[in-house]
Amino acid sequence: MSARDGFHNICPAQKKPIKNEEKMSAKILLGAFAAVLLAACSSQGPTWNAYRVSMPNGQQAYRVDCHGLFEGQDACFSQAKEICGKKQMQPFEQVAPLGDDQNPRDVRILTFQCATPPQPAQPVVAKPAPIPAPVVVPAAPPKRITLDSDANFDTDKSTLKAEAREKLDVLVEAANGTTFRAITINGYTDSTGSVEHNQDLSERRAQSVAKYLRDHGLRAEKFNVHGYGESSPVASNATAAGRAKNRRVDITLE
Hints:
The protein is α+β, with helices and mostly antiparallel strands. 34% of the residues lie in helices and 22% in strands. It is rod-shaped, with a radius of gyration of 59 Å.
């Protein structure tokens, strides 16, 4: 309603002429009325009503009705965000004036929920792959060992001493079930005594070693067992130290 319309409603037109004093009074009255009318309109600021709404699923929702004369397009949205505070406002029903397609946010009735802002996804920390247990590779058996006759046999005997049996046990364990192509066992003596006696003693000592290895699980396609007596010395038989080195049993694995 304009000030002129208001004035005509209040002061209908007169048929008789209006004097200058009356014209001046009418202008003053018109200005005062227009000022009162504008003051009355501007006092109607944004108004809204808020309601708590119970949803069928039991969740809590809210509704805001915005009905002021000079509401802005975002009035309902602004009030809804204020109600939600730090939570995220999620609208699910909006009512706008009919034919207000150009102002999609000129919403007069807004139903919404306040949701907790989604938390950032925690980074997935990949678990380190388990460290495989170290594979214990059994030590390869020695290709050749020598049994000192003085330490491993009694004098002029072919019976194995405890020290000799311990050495042979280590050899069997290191083989770890391996089947060898051939195991050669050769017995030797020094030059003391007759050739026949030394030959027999070297053979008996070689056989004693071969039997112990077979009985305790050392496997081979064949065992070659020989006695060579006093032949093939590795040191001089002229000295005691040399003769001790010549009294031996050699074991070769193939």
